[in-house]
Amino acid sequence: MWESVETAPGIYDMNYLNNVEALIQRFANYGMVTIVDNHQDLFSRKLCGEGVPHFYTPTDLDHKCPMTPLAQAFHLADECISFDDLHLSYDIEGLPLVSDC
Asked: Which residues contact 10 (CB under 8 A, 6 or more apart)?
């Protein structure tokens, strides 16, 4: 995950990258090919996900369902609620606790 590599703006966790490289090499030693999938899950920790580091996440998120066709379907089914209505606990950086997500 990007947020595991870049822990602060411009600060990279080389130990993490070295561990990933060592794991890939370990697989190679067994004749396995590795595909590194640098994906994200729900964009950012600010949205109870993983991927983009929270310090790059827009600060103007309103934590509400967007006005997209899919979101409107959730609205109609009363399944689209405000992020604030989830009553999550937050850490010292203002990020939702992973245990609550």
From this structure: none
Q: Where are the domains of the chain?
A: 1-55, 62-101
Which residue bears the tokens 């370990």?
Answer: 26
Print pLDDT tens along the chain (101 aa). 888 899 999 999 999 999 999 999 999 999 999 998 877 777 888 888 888 898 888 776 666 666 777 777 777 777 777 777 788 899 998 888 988 88
* Helix then strand then coil, % of the chain, to nearest 5: 40, 10, 50
Among 59, 58, 63, 69, CA closest to 86:
63
- The length of the chain is 101
H or E segment to which residue 12 belongs: strand 11-12
